[in-house]
Amino acid sequence: MLANEKGGLILALAGFALLSCGDALIKTMAGQWSPLAVAAVRFTIGAAGLSIFLLIKEGRAAFRPQSPWLQAGRGLCLAIATMCFFAAIFVMPLAEATALIFLAPIITALLSGPLLKERVRPATWIASIMAFVGVILVLRPNLSELGPIALLPLGSALSFSLMMLANRAVAGQGSSLSMQVFVAAGAAPVLVLCTVAGAWSGAERFAVSWPDWTVIARCAVVAVSASTAHWLVYLGTTRAGAATIAPMTYVQLLVAITLGWLLFSDTPDVMTLVGSSVIIAAGLFLWSRGPEQSKPVTE
Is 140 helix (H, G, I), strand (E, B) or coil? Predict the structure, then answer.
């Protein structure tokens, strides 16, 4: 039993680390193509690949969702979260953007009250205050240098939290693979439409031209690596349990800091590291008070 749990932890750690590796690969495309186009290609490839697997494994019946509008909402939330995060890491240090994404578990816990009629416990408010302090510390240098664009990771965390709440609403309506297909297939067309709108806007940042083949290749690699990462986390959860592997998600931040330093020469200052630590501490505190409302979440 102990060996099985240890194996589950290793699988989950590998999955969470792989997610940050994918984020770093996305950041290498900064200035080479529109972040909206990168997101659209990444999810179009991902949705197509996952759909093929679902068709082979479960057949055509698996493509009929029980709650189409909720599934569409999941896709919309994921599309917004992805656009905000990709746009953020194109201009922000990877570690800072990743740290702010870890607000998602706390936002999810707060919103579960008004949206799902769940009781918001005192521990949630304590964690929220802690996280708010951490956010101020992380944003401090970025707001002064980048302006409001530094708030993009917060928009990503909020959208991701709404997706997680929608995930609760559709729990049990299909296999984990079909749930991945529905959310990716819902996000892809939204991202394509936003890419077209961005290109028509005339904004240089969102201009779309024919990209170098390596851009498409990197999008494909990220699509495969993200799906593999989610599969590894799923396997880890089945072996060690969700409560055991939940804190392991914070390895993403450690990997993001390391890759940001090695690949992009981004060295977080002391206050940024302190703020990141406070956000992590808030998430771990919330997790320690009970697994139902405190699982750190990632996509």
Answer: helix
